[in-house]
Each structure stands twice: as C-alpha cells, then as structure tokens.
Amino acid sequence: MKDADGYFPERVAATYDDSSEGMFDPAFTDTVAEVLAGLAGGGRALEFGIGTGRIALPLARRGVEVHGIDLSLAMVARLRAKPGGDAIPVAIGDFATTTMDGTFALAYLVFNTIENLTTQDAQVACFRNAAAHLAPGGCFVIEVGVPELRRLPPGQNVHAVARDPRRSGRSTSTTRPPRR
Questions:
Q1: Across the chain, where does the E strand assignment appear?
Q2: What letter does residue 77 receive in the DSSP assignment?
Q3: Which end of the chain has fewer surrounding CB within 10 Å, N or C?
C-alpha cells in the first residue's frame, strides 16, 4: 500500500472539486444525498473514499450521521476545511480493510471509487468490510459508470484512457482497434 497521500496528494486534492463534470453540480450531489438519506432510513452512513465530502456533506445536512474512510490526508484536509466537515468522523486508511466503530444502516462508494481497488481480492475485501459494518438489514451502494460501448466505432472494443500528470489527474481518452 502506498503512503497516505500516494494516490491523491495535495496537487490532486487542490483541484478535485473544480471538475467540470456534472458529478460535482450541487443539483446532482443533492439528488444523490437525498436518495442515500432515504436508504439510510434515519440510521448512520459510512462512506468509503469520503474524499473532500462531495456527497457526505449534503448527506449530513439532511440529518444523517455520516462517517468516512479515506486513504488521502490531503483530501480529508479539504473536507475538514468546508462548513460541517470537521464534524464528520474519518478514519485514514484503505477502505477495503480500515474499520470504524459501530454499525451503519448504509455503506456506500460513489463516483467510481471502487475502481481505486485494482484487484479482485481488494474488491472482495471491500465487500467484506462493508458487510462487517452494516447493521442487519443495512444497504451497501456502489455507483460506477458504465461505458457507452455504442460509441465505439465498428470493429473497436477498447476505449483507452491515459492519465496526464501535467493536468492534475484529469484524463484524456482515445479509441483503438482491437489487437489481432
């Protein structure tokens, strides 16, 4: 495992909330928080990969007691700097194995965060960790994007994404024909 800021250091955290993607639009985050509040049903919620609080803060404003786990000290520092962010308990560590005290009505991973676990074993460990945190009848929610395969040109089955370190973690993508 990398050090606590190996994946999301300050240079990424500093611009994380500036994304032009609709996922950061308050209308979107409020809608997600409303759905999650309903699933929590008045119980506590645990966010795996809480980051800067994009979802945790609007969920907490709805009266849900939110806790979080995150690997990045820089991302959590950004959460703490926001109104209400200092009231959310956060454990620093890998969300596949790090634990919090007590049980939760809801555990959730949003915005493709599950993809930060790059092996099947790590993903299975995450599911086990969520199950260990959930109260009987609790709910585990995972949000991931599904690629639009219809957008690939005929004969192509790959959509390659390359990270450009000069662009603060933003990605560019291209399509390539399959290898023969």
A1: 45-48, 66-70, 90-92, 104-109, 134-142, 158-163, 171-176
A2: H
A3: C
Residue 108 and residue 49: Cα distance in Å, rounded?
A: 9
Q: What pTM does this model have?
A: 0.80
Report the candidate in 89, 82, 113 with the shortest Cα–Cα distance to residue 17: 82
Contact 116, 56 (CB under 8 A): no
CB 143 within 8 A of CB 165: no
CA distances 19 to 8, 60, 68, 127, 137, Å, are 15, 22, 22, 28, 35
Tokens of 19: 């994304």
Q: Which residue has the tokens 């609007």?
A: 58
pLDDT at 159 over 80: no
Is the pLDDT higher at 171 or at 21? 21
CA atoms of 159 and 149, how far apart (whole Å): 9
- Spatial CA neighbour of 149 closest among 127, 170, 121, 178: 178
Task: Retrieve residue 63's tokens.
Answer: 């009266």
Contact between residue 82 and residue 52 where contact means Cβ atoms under 8 Å apart: yes
